[in-house]
Amino acid sequence: MEQLCPRFEKAMQLFGKRWVGLILYELLNDAKRFSEIEAALPISGRLLSERLKMLEQEGMVERKVYSEFPVRIEYVLTEKGAALQPAIQNIRQWSEHWITQEEVDETIANKE
Amino acid sequence: MEQLCPRFEKAMQLFGKRWVGLILYELLNDAKRFSEIEAALPISGRLLSERLKMLEQEGMVERKVYSEFPVRIEYVLTEKGAALQPAIQNIRQWSEHWITQEEVDETIANKE
DNA sequence: AAACTTAGTTACAAAAAGTAATTAAAGAAA
DNA sequence: TTTCTTTAATTACTTTTTGTAACTAAGTTT
Asked: Which UniProt keywords apply (chains A, B) (predicted)?
């Protein structure tokens, strides 16, 4: 029986946390502020805050504070975070090939 | 503000479910039976059963029953499931570059 | 029939996530 | 100086998901 690589396991635990993939995706092209990410995704402020803190601790995201009015805080991918771009783009391509409109509709229907 | 693609969102919700990435990874090279996956990952039987059922419903995994003794049930990736191979391999490569041994140790330490 | 094997399921406790109201900080307006 | 805005969180509370461990089902062997 093959042994699971601990680095890969940790990466999967990270990436497999709810919202993490979508948050990283939002930051792929440009830095975003808290409220922008919150508006772009159906995530609550509580969890977004928690996830950004985690991603910062993991060294995947940097938090930048600009002392303007009103205060502007931007989240940017670090090199480590940006290195996930290929994986994220792969999933994006996969979803365009393999997720049908019907499946999307079903998922929405189940929510309501 | 850019609109999030619903197919991609659905894909990320799927992939972002705990254990899904690791289960798919286990099935990448060959079909496996329930007990093999259970032994390879620190997942409980309850969740493994739930996830396999979900992946089957999503058309990513096929459940094959062989009427031997003892009964042998194998889980195989469908074409749809196998199409995630590049994404999974990307995350694997990423983890080898970017997850340090120290990070792995910390994660283990926090568990205990 | 009693025991063994794999593949689950069930009942219950613990952890994570969802929701909505509240707070913090910091400069602007009065 | 007080009060008001604005963004960025945090807190209190409920619901959902996950973890744990014991139990069931179906078929086989003894």
From this structure: DNA-binding, Transcription, Transcription regulation
